[in-house]
């Protein structure tokens, strides 16, 4: 455990940021999985889930959780599946 006051604060803020980032990534992955499962099953709401998955990918890229090129690549692959 750090002794310096600023280092102690840094550990606390890193822990909070780590939780927030992990939750955001989990939400993104879940949205993508839901869309893929719905598309494979031929569900009616697949287009809605596609929009939700793309939105989550964009949010993750804007927050710096994933690279923008990865987000665009994943969106392109999801769009291929949606056709």
UniProtKB/TrEMBL annotation:
* GO molecular function terms listed in the Swiss-Prot or TrEMBL record: small ribosomal subunit rRNA binding; structural constituent of ribosome
GO biological processes: translation
Keyword tags: Ribonucleoprotein, Ribosomal protein, RNA-binding, rRNA-binding
**Which Pfam family, an example, fits this chain?**
Ribosomal_S20p
UniProt KW Hydrolase keyword: no
* InterPro entries for the chain: Ribosomal_bS20, Ribosomal_bS20_sf
Which cellular component terms (GO) are annotated to the entry?
cytosol; small ribosomal subunit
UniProt function note = Binds directly to 16S ribosomal RNA.
Q: Describe the family membership recorded for this protein in Swiss-Prot or TrEMBL.
A: Belongs to the bacterial ribosomal protein bS20 family.
Looking up NCBIfam families in the UniProt record yields: S20
- The protein's name is Small ribosomal subunit protein bS20
Q: Which gene encodes it?
A: rpsT
């Amino acid at each position: 455990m750090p002794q310096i006051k600023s280092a102690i604060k840094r550990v606390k803020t890193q822990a909070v940021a780590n939780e927030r980032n992990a939750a955001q990534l989990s939400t993104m992955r879940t949205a993508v999985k839901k869309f893929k499962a719905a598309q494979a099953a031929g569900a009616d709401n697949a287009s809605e889930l596609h929009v939700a998955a793309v939105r989550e990918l964009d949010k993750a890229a804007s927050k710096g959780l994933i690279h923008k090129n990865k987000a665009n690549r994943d969106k392109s692959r999801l769009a291929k599946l949606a056709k």
